[in-house]
Amino acid sequence: MREEWFPHRPHPALRGLVTAAVGYRQEGLPAGVHRGLPSPHLTLVVTLDEPLRMAAHPDPRQAPGEFDALLGGLHTTPALISHPGRQAGVQLALTPLGARRLLGLPAGELAALDCPPADVLGRAGAELTERFRAARTWPERFAALERVLLRGVRDSGLRHGGAPDGGAPPPEVAEAWRLTTASGGRMRVAEIAARVGWSERHLGARFRTETGLSPKEAARVVRFDRARRALAARVGAGRSPDLAGLAVAAGFADQAHLTREWRAFSGLSPTRWLAAEVRFVQDGGPPVTARSSA
Question: Is 286's pLDDT higher than 90?
Answer without folding.
Answer: no
